[in-house]
Amino acid sequence: MNSADMLVSNGIVLTLDNENSQIKNGSVAIKKDKIVAVGNADEFSGWEVSRIINAHGCIIMPGLVNAHTHAAMICFRGLADDLPLMTWLNDFIFPAEAKLDEEKVYRATLLACAEMIMSGTTCFCDMYLFEDAVARAAKRSGMRAVVGEVLYDFPSPNYGPIEQGFTYSKMLIEKWQNDPLIKIAIEPHSPYLCSPDLLKKAFSITQANNILLVIHVSETESEVNNIKDKYGLTPIGHLADLGVLAPNLLACHCVILTDKDISLLHHHDVKVAHNPESNMKLASGIAPIPRLLEEGICVGLGTDGCASNNNLDLFQEMDTAAKLHKVNTFDPTVIDSATALRMCTIEAARALGLGETTGSLEVGKKADIIVLDTKKPHLTPMYNPTSHLVYSARGSDVKTTIINGEVVMEDGRLLSLDLEKTMDDVRKIAESIRTC
Question: Residue 138 — φ and ψ, nearest 5°?
Answer without folding.
Answer: -60, -45
